[in-house]
Amino acid sequence: SQKIEQNSEALNIQEGKTATLTCNYTNYSPAYLQWYRQDPGRGPVFLLLIRENEKEKRKERLKVTFDTTLKQSLFHITASQPADSATYLCAQGGGTASKLTFGTGTRLQVTL
Amino acid sequence: DAGVIQSPRHEVTEMGQEVTLRCKPISGHNSLFWYRQTMMRGLELLIYFNNNVPIDDSGMPEDRFSAKMPNASFSTLKIQPSEPRDSAVYFCASSLGKRGVAYEQFFGPGTRLTVL
């Protein structure tokens, strides 16, 4: 069955650096991938969506790529700030259903 | 808009008791999703509705779980009887959408359920 895999280990980076988070999927390419941010004690918040025919999507300091050859999506935060510290979730969707399958998330910690 | 509203925010109950979680989606959204989140298994989809009709309930763990959506502005997730392994955070989310079309989902604040 299709799986979405994210690095379960926390990512620690210094303020001002670029954070790069990875989302890998097995088997078939999903029609689209979505990225969400989740803060402790809160529900996930949508950030970006990228479709399988798109190579890259940007929104302010955020950038998402979709590589169907590598079966991977990369999520970048440039000029990272301590306020970017959170857990980031990748989710795949597609087919005839509008449901999403989420990865387990990667916790990002940005330090001064 | 107030966003997705869930109640209660916290629920502590004893094993064997019935638990009912409630959700009010964003007005105008026609898809509603119930998720469960644990450290071990992450965010899992339990069931989702489109236009108040259950579309996929394959994620519902067992017959102890049931969900209803009597109208476009209200849904419930019921666990009867509850067990300690049901302890988790339960999220409700809503979105605009039709089958096969990708729309962002808006999540509620969640209900933290503890079954003793």
Description:
The complex is a heterodimer of chains A (112) and B (116). In chain A, the strands form 2 sheets. In chain A, strands 2, 4, 5, 9, 10 and 11 form a 6-stranded mixed sheet that branches. A 5-stranded antiparallel sheet of chain A has the order 1-3-8-7-6, with no helix packed on it. With 112 residues, chain A is mostly beta strands. In chain A, a hairpin with a 4-residue loop joins β7 (62-67) and β8 (72-77). Helices cover 0% and strands 58% of the residues of chain A. In chain B, the strands form 2 sheets. In chain B, strands 2, 4, 5, 6, 9, 10 and 11 form a 7-stranded mixed sheet that branches. In chain B, strands 1-3-8-7 form a 4-stranded antiparallel sheet, with no helix packed on it. Chain B is mainly beta and 116 residues long. The N and C termini of chain B lie far apart (36 Å).
Q: Percent range for helical residues of chain A?
A: under 10%
Task: Give me the count of strands of chain B.
Answer: 11
The share of residues in helices of chain B is: under 10%
Tell me the radius of gyration of chain A: 13 Å
Low-pLDDT residue spans of chain A: none
Let me know the largest β-sheet of chain B. Answer: 7 strands, mixed
Question: What would you say about this model in short?
Answer:
With 112 residues, chain A is mainly β. Chain A has strands at 4-6, 11-14, 19-25, 32-38, 45-51, 56-59, 62-67, 72-77, 86-94, 97-102, 106-111. Chain B is globular and about 40 Å long.
